[in-house]
Amino acid sequence: MEASNAITGSFDYEILAEIGEGAYGKVYKARHLKNKLDFVAIKKIKLEKGADRNGVPSFMIREVAVLRKINTFDHPNIVRLLDVCASCSAQELDLTLVFEYIDMDLASYLKSVPECGLPREKIRGVMWQLLSGLDFLHTHMVIHRDLKPENILISSRGRIKVTDFGLARLYSFNMALTPEVVTLWYRAPEILLYSSYLSSVDVWSAGCVFAELHLLRFIGAPPQEEWPENSPLQHRSFWSETGTHTQNPIANMDELGKDLLLKFLCFKPMKRLSAAEALEHPYFRTEMEALEHPYFKTETEALEHPYFKTETEALEHPYFKTEATSRVVEVWP
C-alpha cells in the first residue's frame, strides 16, 4: 500500500478502496493500521481556501453536530461516527470523518434482488429497523430530511442503519425549516408545496422506501389530475413515470402492509403516523396478534372460510374424484 493511502493524525487508517463520491469529496473503505481486522468508512472532504466563508460547509458542521449528539446513545439503527480529523495546507482544508463500516446501501442491495422480489419477512425486518431508527431520531428532536435507499445501510447480516446526516436538523416546534431538502422521489407533499413541516416528512419518505422494497422501483408521482392547482412545483418537474395509486398500492403486499402504507403516505401530515405509532401497527405483530386486527373477520366468520372446511367436505373437492386419488383416500391412515 502506497504511503499516500495512509491517513494519519489523531488516528491511523489505510485506505483500501473507493466506495462512493459526493459533491464535496469521496468515501473510502479503510482499516486501522494497528488492528487490520477493523474496517471503517472514511468520508474525505477537500475544500479550497476561500471557497466557503467559514472554511467548512454548513452541512458538514451539521452532520458532525447531530452525530455527536445522538451517538452518545449508540442506537443499533444509526450509523456511528468514530472520529473526526481536520488538516490544513496553504491551498486547501481537509476534513476526514470516520464511520463504522457497513457492507452496502439499500439502493445497491435492491439492484441485486431477483425479479420475484424480497420475502415479506425480509421487508418487515428492514422496515422495523428503519422505523426504530427514525423513532430514536425524532425522540431526540432530529429530522433526517433526506431519507432514501442510498442513505440506508444494510449489513451482510441484515442490520439496517440510517446514515448521511448532512441535511439533518435539530428542531423545535417554532423553527422554520428550508423546503430545499429530501431527494425528489421521497419528498413529502408539504415540502413540495413549500409548507411548514416537522418530523412527519421522514415518515413519508419511509413510506416511499416501503413501497420500493416491494416494487423494486420508485413508487412514482401522482397523476396530473390529482396535482394541486397553483402549486409552486409543477407536475412536469417530475420524470414521467406512471405513479402507483395509493388506493390500490401494490399487488404483492398483504392487507396489513397496504394499510400501513396508506398511513405512511397520508397527504395531511397531522394525520400521518409517527414512527413510534407505526411500530405499534399490526403489520409488525406476530401472526396470532395480527389476526386480532379489525381488518380480519370475527372468529365465527373466519371459520366459515372454505379453508376451514371439514375433512369430509375437503375430500369432496373435484381433485379427489379420480379413481386413483379416491383409492388413496380410502386407505389413508
Could you characterize the architecture of this molecule?
This protein has 333 residues and is α+β, with helices and mostly antiparallel strands. The protein has 3 domains: 3-100, Phosphorylase Kinase, domain 1 (2-Layer Sandwich), CATH 3.30.200; 104-290, Orthogonal Bundle (Transferase(Phosphotransferase), domain 1); 300-333, no CATH class. It is built from 11 helices and 11 strands. It has helices at 58-70, 106-111, 120-139, 189-192, 200-215, 255-264, 275-279, 287-290, 299-303, 311-315, 323-331; strands spanning 6-8, 12-21, 25-32, 39-48, 81-88, 92-100, 104-105, 142-143, 152-154, 160-162, 169-170. The strands form 3 sheets. It has a 6-stranded antiparallel β-sheet with strand order 1-2-3-4-6-5, covered by helices on one side. A hairpin with a 5-residue loop joins strand 9 (152-154) and strand 10 (160-162). Helix 3 (120-139) packs antiparallel against helix 5.
Short descriptors:
333 residues; alpha+beta; Phosphorylase Kinase, domain 1; Transferase(Phosphotransferase), domain 1; 3 domains; six-stranded antiparallel beta sheet; three-stranded antiparallel beta sheet; 11 strands; 18% strand; globular; disordered C terminus; cyclin binding; kinase
Strand coverage percent: 15-25%
Q: In CATH terms, what is the architecture of the largest domain?
A: Orthogonal Bundle
Helix content: 25-40%
Classify the secondary structure makeup into a structural class. alpha+beta
Q: What's the CATH class of the largest domain, please?
A: Mainly Alpha
Distance between the termini: 70 Å
* Main sheet record: 6 strands, antiparallel
**Gyration radius, to the nearest Å?**
25 Å
CATH superfamily of the largest domain: Transferase(Phosphotransferase) domain 1
- Summarize model confidence as the mean pLDDT: 77
| String of helices and strands | EEEEHEEEHHEEEEHHHHHHHH
Total number of helices: 11
Describe the strand arrangement of the main beta sheet, using strand numbers: 1-2-3-4-6-5
The total number of structural domains is 3
Low-confidence stretches: 324-333
Shape: globular
CATH topology of the largest domain: Transferase(Phosphotransferase), domain 1
The count of DSSP E runs of length 2 or more, i.e. the number of strands, is 11
Keywords: ATP-binding, Kinase, Nucleotide-binding, Serine/threonine-protein kinase, Transferase
Family: Belongs to the protein kinase superfamily. CMGC Ser/Thr protein kinase family. CDC2/CDKX subfamily. Belongs to the protein kinase superfamily. CMGC Ser/Thr protein kinase family. MAP kinase subfamily.
Binding site for ATP: 44
Catalytic activity: L-threonyl-[protein] + ATP = O-phospho-L-threonyl-[protein] + ADP + H(+); L-seryl-[protein] + ATP = O-phospho-L-seryl-[protein] + ADP + H(+)
